[in-house]
Structures are given as C-alpha cells and as structure tokens.
C-alpha cells in the first residue's frame, strides 16, 4: 500500500510544490509572521534532509535571517545591479522594444522587482552565504521553500554558483541554461523532500495545498508581465525540472537523480535549445552545441554616426516569440515540456547575436541568426514575415539577417546585406 501511495500521490505533489516555489507570499495579516527562532529551526532540521537527498555534505552551516519585503527588495536590487548594470539593462530594454518583445518604455528593473515582490517567499544570497526568509511567508509553505533554497546553498558551497553565472554574463541564452540547471535541481530536491515529508507525516498536504492555492490567486503581477519576462522568470523553474528529468517527472519516484546532477554541474548545458529539447543535451549522438555568431562590423552599414551600444543572444526560447511561440500559463506550464514553449519555426535554431546601435537620436537592432539547415532558415524567415512584419529580414542559405529601427535613415537594405556578407558563424562543436 505504501508503494501504491507513492505512485499515485507523486504527480499531485509535484504539481503542488511547483506552484509553491513561485507562489506569492500574500498579505502579512493572513497568517502569523515567521520569527528568527522558527527560521533557524527550519534550517537546522531541513539541512540534513537536503544533504541526504542531494548526496552532498554541507561544508559549513548556512546562516539564516528573517526579513520584510522592503529588505528583500533591497537585496534583490543589489543583486540585479551586479548581474545587470544599468547601461546593459537600458540597451536590452531598447532592443527588446524595437523587436516587439517589450512594450516601449518598459522599465525592466521595476517590472521584475514588482513580480518578485509577489512571488518571493525566501531567497539564498551566495555573496553572504545566507538564506533569507520573508516574515510574511505562510508557515505551511516555509519548509518547502527552505528545502529549495538550502539546495542552492549546498550547491553553492560545492560549485560556486555566482562564478558560474558571471562567466556567462555576456550570453543571455547560456545564462538562462545555467539558471535552469540551478533552479531545476532545487525544484527536484524540493519536490522529493515534500513528497517524502507528506508521506511521513511531517507536512500536511491539505494545509500546504490550501496555502498554495490561496497565495497563487494573488499572482497578478506575474500574469501581467510581457511573455519575454515571464519566460525568463518561470522558465528556469519549470523547464529546468523538465530538462533534468527529460520530461518524465515520474522518474522522481526513485529519488533525486544524482548522476544527472553530477553531469550537468561538470558539463553544463549551453543554450535554451538544450533545455527545451533535452535530447539535444543528454543524447551524445544528438547533442547540439550552439554556433558562435559574430556580426563583425556589419552594423557600420547603418551610417557613419552610428555606434554599437549593446548586444546579446536571444536563443530559441526568446527568438520563438518573434515567430508565434506561445508562453504557457502558470498552471499549464507546471508539468509541460519544452515543446509547449517553442514552435516549428524556432526549433531549427543554431545560434544568433543581436546588437543595438545608436546615432544619439535613434536606435536600430541588427540581428544575425544561424540555422541548422537552409530549410530551417527559410521556415523562420517566412514565419517572421507573417508574425513580425515590422522587422526587415534577408535570408542567405542557413542564415537570416534582421534589422529594425525607430526612425532616421539607417540604410536597412545595406545593413542586411552587410550582415550576410560580413557576419561570421563558427559551428565548431555544433551538431552537423
């Protein structure tokens, strides 16, 4: 009977805790505030469980502090400043607005902070090796969130998470893939911990479910976010877990897949394509590494007074939004695999690079994409013409160049021609 209970309960528990990890914390007067003694007790008790599940020993105790929403905002703001300097953030805002990924004038920092204000119940800060628990976190959910964040703390002690992220700071898509590993690992440990604690009577499934449902009803800022931001916020949690289990959540009935976690920390995925299509990472014969794309000085075709002010990589996850890919909702995306986050016109992605150029008064985005085949490039260009008619594109073989400007005379045709002629695509390591 115990074996049957595990098999029948696990999918429900997985769906529940996936929602818990990103559920809003709610109003403080809905439940008693968590104090420092309670937080310390949680960490002391759950650290041993996390260590046993993950198969790693804590090298030192994890400090814990209880903070209110204002203090949490300051911590998150400082972390955003470290990973997203203001100049880089402004370039991304402008480029994404021109590409139609963001409404013009969107303040990425404030939009993200507002969404996180509703969602965050606790967070781990690698810089101080401290777990911060919000005092407004519902007590029923606190053990689950603690298991998630202690997984980050444990892995940070062994793998230095911030160092890994900072090494990929100039490649947004690679950074997403690393985040998916970190969050996916924590989601798995949290899920197995929660299932075992409920079956063992340490957690009450009804209380946990009621708390999660009550809090999820308040997730207004998350639902209102543009798709590109929801993908970046939710994707590492939902897609990361699906990637680590190859889309089969029932594999967690056997516990945390330590062998897989050891592999991804030794040899991490390098693109959202690999996260969306796990076989392109886990299957050695089908493994598909992204091509390195360089526009060279092609952007100079915009004119003598134009200067490059920013750049990055969109990857399949973000590029798909230009060609009709939809973003699953919170409920729909809980156990959905990567196929629900992309579409046929984006699936042949091989690599890309975007650059933002400015003449002081106007801006333009130059984007060069590489595809696995000429047919994949043709399919993307056709979908782009249908779904993003404001963008100007030109295809040559397995490449598609895209340019869009907000005014002035940026010589669009010449720029497209120069991107095709001068852009470089290094496919070393990419699948043939």
Kindly describe this structure.
- By secondary structure, the protein is of the alpha+beta class.
- A five-stranded antiparallel beta sheet has the order 5-6-7-9-8, sandwiched between helices. Strands 1-3-2 form a three-stranded mixed beta sheet. A two-stranded antiparallel sheet has the order 4-10.
- Strand 6 and strand 7 form a beta hairpin.
- It is globular, with a radius of gyration of 22 Å.
Task: Name the features.
single chain, 432 residues, alpha+beta, 5-stranded antiparallel beta sheet, 3-stranded mixed beta sheet
Q: What percent strand?
A: 5-15%
- The poorly predicted ranges are 1-29
Order of helices and strands: HHEHHHEEHHHHHHHHHEEHEEHEEHE
Tally of DSSP β-strands: 10
Q: What is the helix fraction of residues, given as a range?
A: 40-55%
Oligomer: single chain
Please outline the major beta sheet: 5 strands, antiparallel
- Structural class, judged by helices and strands? alpha+beta
Give the CA-based shape: globular
Gyration radius, to the nearest Å? 22 Å
Mean pLDDT: 85
Distance linking N and C termini = 50 Å
Q: What is the count of DSSP helices, taking H or I runs of 4+ residues?
A: 17
Strand order of the largest sheet: 5-6-7-9-8
Task: Give a quick summary of the entry.
The protein has 432 residues and is of the alpha+beta class. It contains 17 helices and ten strands. Helix content is 50%, strand content 13%.
């Amino acid at each position: 009977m115990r074996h049957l209970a595990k098999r029948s309960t696990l999918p429900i528990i997985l769906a529940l805790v996936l929602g818990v990890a990103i559920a809003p914390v709610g109003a403080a007067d809905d439940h008693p505030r968590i104090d420092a003694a309670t937080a310390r007790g949680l960490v002391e008790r759950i650290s041993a469980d996390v260590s046993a599940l993950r198969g790693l020993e804590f090298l030192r105790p994890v400090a814990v502090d209880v903070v209110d929403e204002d203090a949490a905002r300051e911590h998150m703001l400082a972390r955003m400043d470290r990973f997203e300097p203001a100049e880089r953030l402004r370039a991304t805002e402008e480029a994404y607005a021109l590409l139609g990924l963001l409404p013009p004038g969107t303040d990425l920092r404030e939009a993200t902070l507002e969404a996180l204000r509703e969602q965050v119940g606790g967070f781990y800060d690698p810089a101080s090796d401290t777990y911060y628990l919000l005092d407004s976190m519902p007590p029923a959910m606190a053990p689950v969130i603690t298991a998630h964040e202690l997984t980050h703390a444990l892995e940070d002690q062994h793998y230095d998470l911030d160092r890994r992220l900072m090494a990929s700071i100039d490649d947004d898509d690679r950074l997403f893939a690393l985040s998916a590993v970190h969050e996916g690992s924590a989601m798995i440990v949290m899920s197995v911990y929660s299932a075992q604690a409920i079956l063992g009577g340490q957690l009450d499934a009804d209380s946990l479910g009621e708390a999660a449902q009550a809090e999820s009803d308040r997730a207004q800022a998350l639902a209102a976010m543009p798709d590109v931001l929801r993908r970046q916020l939710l994707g590492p949690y939902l897609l990361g877990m699906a990637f680590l289990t190859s889309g089969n959540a029932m594999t967690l009935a056997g516990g945390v897949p330590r062998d897989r976690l050891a592999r991804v920390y030794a040899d991490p995925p390098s693109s959202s394509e690999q996260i969306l299509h796990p076989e392109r990472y886990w299957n050695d014969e089908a493994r598909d590494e992204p091509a390195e794309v360089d526009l060279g000085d092609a952007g100079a075709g915009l004119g003598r007074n134009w200067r490059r002010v920013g750049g990055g990589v969109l990857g399949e996850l973000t590029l798909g939004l230009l060609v009709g890919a939809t973003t699953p909702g919170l409920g729909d995306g809980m156990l959905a695999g990567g196929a629900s986050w992309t579409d046929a016109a984006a699936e042949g992605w091989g690599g890309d690079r975007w650059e933002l150029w400015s003449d002081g008064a106007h801006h333009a985005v130059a984007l060069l994409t590489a595809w696995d085949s000429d047919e994949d490039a043709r399919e993307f260009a056709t979908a782009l013409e249908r779904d993003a008619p404001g963008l100007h594109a030109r295809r040559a073989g397995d490449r598609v160049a895209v340019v869009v400007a907000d005014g002035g005379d940026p010589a669009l045709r010449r720029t497209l021609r120069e991107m095709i002629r001068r852009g470089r695509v290094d496919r070393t390591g990419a699948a043939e």
